[in-house]
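Take a specimen:
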Amino acid sequence: MKISLEEIRHLAHLARLEFKEEEMKSMQGDMDKILGFVAKIDELNLEGVEPLVYLSEERNVLREDRSSTILSKDEALKNAPDKDSDYFRVPKVLSREED
């Protein structure tokens, strides 16, 4: 499968990339090679081959979820540097620009 320069331009536009004309031709050659490598998969007999889902046999060992006592509001706010009855107070980080 060959890829046209117009398709390269379209892909570059979608990816918001800019190429010079000689870079486009180089990219076209590279894409042709990539598509050629992928096309080789069609030549293989893949009957009964399971798709690769995980790169290794390792599995995460997760702890069992258990409910436990949670902090009350008073305990959570006890060491807060600035608080307002039920809330943490933090410095303003966003500002509205006036036109």
About this structure: The longest strand covers residues 83-84. Residues 48 and 84 are 64 Å apart (CA to CA).
